Amino acid sequence: MAGISPARAQAFRILLQMEGGRGHSDTLLRGREVSALPPLDRNLATALVLGTLRWQIELDQRIRPLLKHPNAKLDAEVRIALRLGVFQLMHMERIPARAAIDESVELTKRAGHKFASGLVNAVLRKVAQSHVNSENDCLNAYPAWMLERWTDFYGRKEAFSICRSGQEQPSISVRLTGDTIKPELATEGIELGPGEFLQVAWRVIAGDVTKAAALREGRLRIQDEGSQLIAELIPRGNSILDSCAAPGGKTLILAERNPEMIIVACEASPQRLAQLQKRLQPLGERAQCRLADATNFGEENAFDVVLADVPCSGTGTLGRNPEIRHRLQPGDLPRHAERQKALLQSALRVVRPGGYVLYSTCSLEPEENEQVVDAILSESKNTQIAPFQQRIEKLSAERILTTAGADRLLESITSQGFLRLLPGAFQTDGFFAALLRKKPSSPPTLP
Description:
Blueprint: H1 6-19, H2 25-28, H3 32-35, H4 39-63, H5 76-91, H6 97-110, H7 117-130, H8 144-154, H9 156-166, E1 173-176, H10 181-187, E2 191-194, E3 201-206, H11 213-216, E4 220-222, H12 225-232, E5 239-242, H13 249-257, E6 262-267, H14 270-280, E7 287-291, E8 303-309, H15 324-327, H16 332-350, E9 351-361, H17 370-379, E10 383-385, H18 388-397, H19 403-411, E11 419-421, E12 431-438
Parallel strand pairs: 5-6, 5-8, 6-7, 8-9
Antiparallel strand pairs: 1-3, 1-4, 2-3, 9-12, 10-12, 11-12
C-alpha cells in the first residue's frame, strides 16, 4: 500500500481478521506476510497488534465521547483504524503524531470508507491535542468483572500489579542446554540476563533470539520461565504421563530430567498431535505420542507421575495473549472447571498408589484452580496434598533453582499448600500448581 507503512498495513489486516473472529494474534503474527517483513517492521507490526488489543477497552472509551454520535455503530474498518491511531498517540511515544494520524486516515480510505476518513482525522487530532496518560489507565484496559474479582481474591494492590503487568510486553525467556551457548549468543548480538528462579532460564535483554543458530539447532528453546518451572516441580519417576502435552515444552524438560525413562505424551487434537510428534522427534522411542482424550485414558495405576497441565481460560497470560480479555465471559469459567475436574480425576486414576499428580493451569481464577482441587479431594479418600516446600528445597539442593529463586517460591506457597505465581510479582506468566499424592495401598490385614 503506497503511503502506508508495511507494519501498519499488516497490523490493520490482522486486527480486522480478529475483529471478525478469524484467528488469534499468536498465529496471525507468525503468518507468512508478517514473517516476510524486515525485522524493524515485523517488531512494529507485533507491537501495534498486541498493544491495540491490550488497550482496546480504554481506546474505545477515549474514542466514543469524541464522536458526533457517540452511540453510532462504526464499520469494523473505521473502528480498527481509530484504535490503531489512538493507541499510537497515547502509548507509543516514538511514533510521530503526524504518522499515526495520516496513516490511519489512509487506511480508512483504502478500506473503502473515504467519507469516514474525515471523522478519523478529526478524532485523532483531538486525542493528540488533549490526552494525558495516568498510571491508573491500566485499570481501564480490562473488563470490569475481571478487575472486580481480582480485587476480591487478591487485594487492590495485587490486582493493580496484575493489570499493569498485562499491559507490558512480556519478557522473552529461553532455556539453555549447555554452558557454551551464552557466549555464542553474545557473538550474535544477543544479550541475556538471569531468570527469576531457574539456573538454566535466562531473559533476553537485547538482540533477536529468533535468528540464533542455537534455536534452529534445538540447543536453545524459547519458553516462559513459569512454564519451565511447572515441569521442574514434577517428582522423578520410572514411568511418566504428560496428559495434555502439546505444544511439548514441558515434555522436553521431563525427558531432560528423567533421561532413562519412557514418557507418554497425550494430545486430543490430531493437528496438535502432529506438531507434538515433530517437536519430540529428537527423543526417539523415549517419547510415545498418543492421540487420546485424557479424560478417557484406559489404563489404571499405570504411571509413577502424571502431569495434568490442563486447558484453561489463560488469564495468567493476558500480557502475551491480550485478546483473551475480549473473548472470555464469567460463564466460561464453570465450563472450563468441569473439564478440568474430569482431567484431574483421570490423572489420579492412572497414577499408581504412592505416585504423584501435578495439576497446573495458567489461570488466575479460583474456579479453575483451588476449587477444582478441593472438589476432587472431597470426592477422593485416597488423595492428599503433597507439600511443595520439600520439592522446592530439593530442587535448590540440586542447583536447579537459585537460592534466591527458591526463597521467593517458598513465599508463594498458599495457606492450602498450593503454588501461585501472579503476573507482576514475577516476570513470568501467571501460574497455579497443586502437587497431589495418591496414598499408598494399605498393607494386608493379618489373619
